[in-house]
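Structural prep section.
Before we set up the soaks we want a predicted structure of the protein with 6-O-phosphono-beta-D-glucopyranose in place, mainly to decide which crystallisation condition to try first. Input record follows.
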Amino acid sequence: MSSKDNPSPRGESTEPTNIVIFGATGDLTKRKLMPALIKMVEYGLVHPQSRIIGVANNNTEAEWRDLVKAGLEKYLDDGAMSEARWRSFSAMLKMVPGDLADDDTYARLAESIETLGGRKNAMFYCAIPPQWYPAVTRGLRQAGLISEQEGFRRIVIEKPFGMNLQSARELNGELQTAFDESQIYRIDHYLGKESVQNLLVYRFANSIMEPLWNRNYIDHIQISAAETLGMEYRAKYYENSGALRDMIQSHLMQVMTLVAMEPPVEFTANAVRDEKIKVLRAIRAIAPEDIERMAVAAQYASGVVEDEKVPAYVAEQDASPDSATETFAAVRFYIDNWRWQGVPFILWTGKRMKRRASEVMIRFRVPPFNLFDSHASPPKANALVFRLQPDEGIVLRMNAKMPGLTTDVQRMVMRAPYARDDMYVPEAYETLLQDVLLGDATLFSRADEVEESWEIVEPILEQWKDRFSISRYRAGTWDVPEMDHLLEGCVGGWHKPT
Ligand code: BG6
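Run finished without errors. Recording the tokens verbatim:
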């Protein structure tokens, strides 16, 4: 292995575990879970005595193995899938065929859970549509697979975690009747991204930022995820979701909590989550009459993205031709506490935008007095940009003297890439799977966080659900004029990633 291949393990080792995947033939398993697991096995982050047990209907074990292999050939990002590599990984694979609604499936699963290294540890990964979570929880409980007497038992739940506050509460209730909260891992893969975790390190491992990190110096903050992708094959899900649910309620609000939270007393799951929930509780409720002013919804029309002609959202497979589902959403939030009173947090996301980039942009106040007034360009407000992806890193925009005989001011941009080319940067799923195996829930959402974030967006969802029309932007552009109104009064206006 080169140094790039060395993921610098955290010094703790994982125990041999039965890694059970519900939805073993699904897209998430193929694209994300298996590529993460094979690397983790090779790096020693998954104990070599572990087993990966796929649960799925309609496939024989041989067919499933072929699917996994084909998926690895397509999605592995660290080199070719050699026969030797496949042979050693596939020795860990085992399949339990069966319907998730059938009690026998869980009885057979219970039989297949092995004693590994003296314990029967099991992690249950729900890579399935959320409507199946209650059936799986019930099945596991009935088969006696939840008790931790013989080893740990942890359940991993993917988003969407409910479709609104009520369904999220029901789901939490269902899970909590079977599992203790400490056994539940609600994944938000944004929290597994290296650059997102770096937000915490940047804030709390440097002393120079803290004095500036508040309403006295910051004008506003924009947290964004612009994508160039359209629907691919997901319009069926997206029709009932839309951008507000899909990205803002989950990923972007989680990022907002990391940007806005107070320093936790220690870096443990509950200490960090206790601070995050305080941020969510302090978010000002948006009154129905203010929603039009505080939120923007739009949908992509046809256009050209990365030199390719792409269809309008309404022409995507499985989208309704008169759909008013938003593929772009933005909300202006306020956090009513001492640190952030009056500072707008603008969260926005869009599909089929001009460029793919996720960022946190902190815009500072303009200098209180312009000493260099008599010359061409006045100093601009400083901006600190955390590029979450791609090209992870930090950019600081400063003012500096323009070389020459005047005191004209020019914009100076300082860039700090997050990792050197020879460094290993794990994928979000590698980090999160390892955390589940280690029992570290710091990067997972707690029940109260999920419910609180639904409660915050609920009034907007309510108002948007009955709309018949929606404004359109051309795919491949930033053409959402409503954003200028949403950012009214914010220094520098809408920040589009460059
Ligand atoms: C998912 C959303 O949670 O995140 C997708 O459902 C979105 O619609 C994806 O494309 C974005 O993730 P990433 O890691 O590509 O930014």
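Observations: The chain has two domains: 18-158, 191-426+445-486.
Flagged for discussion at group meeting.
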